[in-house]
Each structure stands twice: as C-alpha cells, then as structure tokens.
Amino acid sequence: MNYDLRFMITRMKTIFLTILFASVCLSFTDKPDQLFNTSLTVTVRDELGNTVEGASIQIYETEENYTQEKNAVAEGSTDAKGVFRFKKIKAVAYFVSVKKGDKDNSGGGEKIGKLEEGKFNKVTIVIQ
Predict the structure, then answer these.
(1) Could you give the number of structural domains in the chain?
(2) Which residues of 64-83 are buried (b: 16+ CB within 10 A; e: fewer)?
(3) Which of 32, 98, 123, 125 has the least C-beta neighbours within 10 A?
(4) Per-residue model confidence as pLDDT tens for the chain (128 residues)
(5) Are residues 83 and 49 in the same domain?
(6) Same domain, 26 and 56
(7) Vertex 97, ends 95 and 37: CA angle to 5°?
(8) Domain that holds residue 55
C-alpha cells in the first residue's frame, strides 16, 4: 500500500476517534447553568388602566398560604411606573396578592400560570 494512503487512513482514524471520544465525554457532562435566572415582572393597574405606584405585592406558592396571607415567597412595592420585579424565583405557578389602600386584586386573577424557567416573565394585575 502506498505510504501516503496509509498516512491518510491513519490520520482519518485518529480524527474519527478524537471526535468520538469528545462526543462521549460531552454526553456525560451536567446540563450547563442557565444563562438567566427566572424572574417575574408585575405591573399593577387600577380599574381605569392607570399604573399604580406604591402597591404592595406578595407572591405565594400555595393557595392556603395565599388565603391565610402567610409564608410569602417574596414581596415588594411597585415603583413610579407601577412595576416591581421578583428576581431569582422558582419557575412555578404563583398566587399573587396586590393591595394599595382600599383596593386589591381579590376576586379575580390572583393565580398566574407556571413561569418559564430562565425567562423574564411578565404579568399585569388589576386592582379595584
């Protein structure tokens, strides 16, 4: 067999085995850390559609905790634009309680759908 042909076959085998080895090694590595943390941005509006500054917001994982207003996962207050962002939270469905003065969101839409993991999730809550 020609020396050049044997050299080329040996080189191709080496490349193939290197690629195979790398593929096997990569298949055993853990899932990479997610690029973004899960967050929830809540915008609070009144019955006329105006944003509400200074509304208090609590999020709960269970309906029982929401109903009893205990063990809030996180809480905060809306800024001048009626917005508050919960950062680094679990990607689950939450019960949301929003209050300002004599207005709140009880009676409608207090449970939000499951958040998308590693995404910037958004929801608008109306208080009346």
Answers:
(1) 2
(2) ebbeeeeebbeeeebeeebb
(3) 32
(4) 566 778 778 888 888 778 877 777 666 655 555 567 999 999 999 999 999 999 999 999 999 999 899 999 999 999 999 999 999 999 999 999 999 999 999 866 578 999 999 999 999 999 99
(5) yes
(6) no
(7) 60
(8) 39-126
